[in-house]
Amino acid sequence: MKINWNISYFKPDKQGVFLTENSVKFAAYLHTDQECGVILYDQRGETQRIPFLPEKRRGTLYGLKLEGEGLASYRYNFYVGDQILTDPYACEIHGLEKWGGGKEKERKTYGSLAFHEFDWQEDEPLMIPLEDSILYGVNVRGFTMHKSSGVRNRGTFEGIIEKIPYLKELGVTGIVLMPCYEYEERMVLERPVLDPYSVKASGEMTAVQSNAERKKVNCWGFQNGFYFAPKSAYSAKGAPVVSFKELVREFHKNGLEVLMHFYFPPEIRQLYMLDVIKYWVTEYHIDGVRLGGFHIPFRLLAEEPILKNTKIWCTYLPEEDLPVIRNPLYRNFISDNGNFRYDMRRFLKGDEGLLYQAISYQRRNPREYGVINYLADYDGFSLYDCVSYERKHNEANGENNRDGNDINATWNCGVEGDTRRKSIQELRLRQIKNALSFVFLSQGIPFLFSGDEFACSRGGNNNCYCQDNETGWINWKNNLFSREVLEYAKFLTRLRREHPILHMKEELRVMDYKGCGCPDISYHGAEAWRPDLSHIGRLIGIVLSGQYAPDEEDTSFYIAYNMHWESHKLALPKLAKGEEWIKLSDTGCKAAYEEGEGEPFGEEHPIITVSARSVAVFMTKKCVLPVPGKKKKKSSEKKDGMV
User: 348-372: per-residue pLDDT in tens?
Assistant: First the structure.
């Protein structure tokens, strides 16, 4: 094979592969004393080796530049002695285009030299404030792979674009994509380590597999991979770089953000992680990242100027790094809200000793960073399974049901799994609505995993990482149960967006710091202003005063939580003249769901009855004051209003 390109060398100052239409610059970190260089492959598989020159390296960073026509049709790898390595900085990968790999025993990978022009059409990240954000988790393949999804390009980036109208109607502000960088999804017994800072093993993704393992695929992608390249199997047009950029551009046009989930195993170094995140932010215009794995470089991420406008979601944030993490221009770091998921599940099923934690989670909203609230995610039970199963049912994973969490803090409402008993179905519907209420009526950022908004089930599998089938895919079912859950989820997103007091920028203080006669948030029990926070308490009334909303005064809200298995009475606090409480929603019965349609409670100190295991929401409304001297008509409403 004859090369008609100009070959030159340079001393690079950073690692990576840099493409233009007619040139490519390689900057490879190869810590070795052996001969090393670039291998080029044409479409027939013929190769040409071009060695790096030791005298043209900077430290252990080698630089080589190729110029000429026809580069885009070539693939490449690096070599070190007899070893062949696929570039961990490759912007696109060949060899993994087919999902699952078919019957191939092993797949070889190559970096691509293709150059893709793309018109961003003046696209910019949206920078939606954390307090206004509602995030939605998505597995690219599982989201639209089921035939009920109704999209043309199932299981792809393009399929997600087709769902934009649905996401806007649902009311979320952005999606969080599970790993969609390039990785070998087939389950392997032995996997080479792709360490971008040392030569430990072949970078070609080859391994020995048993017949049983070869049938399984890793649908989640939480493993090592090629972090700079979008997953080619997720591209309907066969151009993953273009497909992903189109997804981001179309989401931004519709006012929706795109965040990406990255998992970094122990061998990945912190500087490499930083390079990966910076690349996706600058090259693909993503709005944020969700980070999992080991040795997350919190301080490096916080100090990087390029990432100051990028949302960075971590499982936790180190206390010692909070002074660096604080960003006065744009609060961009996010952390899980403690043990919200499992404590609120226990509160939901009626465990004692959790009322104080519940109201603390509901109010928590630190000044330095945002907190995120969810009861279900990709791992563990789906939201529907949280009220339908107490034990995991992971037999289909082929690990004798030993994988996944053994303790899930869930309650099946009386029967394990699906049932036709109407009373249990009604209880499960109520419990799902309660769970959604916990998430959307708390001050932190709501996170909803796809399918939970219409009660999608995984059949009790709490670790369906390898279920590339109807267990792991979203079933876009359309029945009375799912429609009722979806309607309630839409109601909550709409209510949250329209009322600033439900999503404040800073944590509420439980103080009257405006001197308006009431605190920003207050707690109530059977008597107004006297909550029962004892160990056995499962009942609370929470008032959010609209007078503390930013910019202009908002409506006030009274949120009643009753997680006891019996109904209880609560007293609504007295309002100023010209205002009255109206019932807006109630998980224990058919709700109004629209402002102005609720039941009014005009008495000065109305007593309400909150049904067993339910959440009720009241809001204030201006009322017509009686004319002085005119006799007031007797109200036909009962003093004890059922909620």
Answer: 999 999 999 999 999 999 999 999 9
3-state helix/strand/coil string of 124-154? CCCCCCHHHCCEEEECHHHHHCCHHHCCCCC
Strand partners, 559: 542, 617
Q: Number of helices (H) and strands (E), helices first, in the chain?
A: 13, 30
Q: Report the alpha-carbon distance of residue 12 to residue 629 in Å, rounded.
A: 89
The torsion of the CA quartet 8, 9, 12, 16, rounded to 10 degrees, works out to 60
Distance CA 638, CA 101 (A): 68
d(CA 18, CA 244) in angstroms, rounded, equals 19
Token pair 């330095």 is at which residue? 368
How far apart are the two ends of the chain, measured CA to CA in Å? 80
Tell me the pLDDT tens digit for each residue of 228-253.
999 999 999 999 999 999 999 999 99
What is the layout of strands, in order, in the sheet containing 607-610?
568-571, 607-610, 640-642
The span from the CA of 643 to the CA of 567, in Å, is 10
C-alpha 165/C-alpha 613 separation (Å) is: 34
Distance of CA 507 to the CA centre of its chain: 22
Which domains, and CATH codes, for the chain?
Answer: 6-112 (2.60.40.10), 131-183+218-336 (3.20.20.80), 339-507 (3.20.20.80), 521-642 (2.60.40.1180)
8-state DSSP, 572: P
